[in-house]
Amino acid sequence: FTLSRIIPTSPIMVIAGEFSTPAQIKALEKRYGFDQPLYIQFFNYLKKIYRGDLGVSLRSNRPVINELKRRLPPTFELVITATAIAALLGIPLGIIAALKRNSWIDHFLRGFTVAGVAVASFWLGIMLQLVFSLYLQAFPLGDQMTGAVPPHVTGFMVIDSILAFDGALLLDAIHHLVLPAVTLCMPGLASFARFTRSGFLGVLQSDYIVYNQSMGIPKRKIICKYAFKNAIVATVSQVGLIFGLLLANTVIVEYIYFWPGLGTYMVDVMLFFDYEGILGSTLFIGLVFLIINIIVDVVQAYLDPRIVEKL
């Protein structure tokens, strides 16, 4: 709240325009409550939050909560897809790196994970657009759909296309989703691979794995039946953090690909200095991040009952 207010500009100046008079500016400040002391503005905002009111966007003059509800499905579709890709590729890569420890495969995958974490999402997105959209023309530059959209049910274009039994719309939705999801998933993929490798190495060096090996149990059975389940618990604990990382990265990725989600909305309200939009979207994303971490904790406790016993 304080950071949004100390920005050396005001949304009132944007709304009023360049040729507004001091009287018009004062009238707008009074209308939106900006003429009151900062602490009063803060307490008034807390009262609105208590009532479930995130205010009215200065940019669109619509309730912020309605704007967020409209933007949430595209962002969730993108983040869930990116997280799924990151997990499905990152976990096997981490297992391979652990089983091939100190080999050239391990060194290559470790270098790949470092690059995946370090690469800037905006640079990767622009490069993918340049190669696959402009040069090869294999994927569209951005947006969710080319033209027609399926009937609104969930807001997820892929799911709505399936529910509409429309194969053409489904292919179009997937076609538009590929590049943004690949761009967004890279830091998550690298993180999954690193955490899985670390967890697997710890499990493979544990006493019960060494004992099973000494008993002559096949290596494949040891890995699949004993090592995988125990190693994956440590990786599951990081899903919430990785999901939050990808959710934060949507601000950049969505803007690059013209994706109509929360990330694009946050950029728009920040450029407009829309206090209500900035605060509302920040609180909303924080709430989503909290819920995801609670779900991850429940799943982790289910996979490893010892966690509950320690509490």
From TrEMBL:
Alphabetical UniProt keywords: Cell membrane, Membrane, Transmembrane, Transmembrane helix, Transport
InterPro entries: BPD_transp_1_N (IPR045621), MetI-like (IPR000515), MetI-like_sf (IPR035906)
Localization in the cell: Cell membrane
Record-linked Pfam families: BPD_transp_1, BPD_transp_1_N
Lipid bilayer topology: Multi-pass membrane protein
Residue spans crossing the bilayer: 78-99, 111-136, 173-193, 231-258, 278-303
SUPFAM superfamilies linked to this entry: MetI-like
Family annotation (Gene3D superfamilies): MetI-like
UniProt keyword Transport, yes or no: yes
GO biological process: transmembrane transport
Residues covered by the ABC transmembrane type-1 domain: 72-300
PROSITE patterns documented for this protein: ABC_TM1
GO annotation, cellular component aspect: plasma membrane
Name recorded for this polypeptide: ABC transmembrane type-1 domain-containing protein
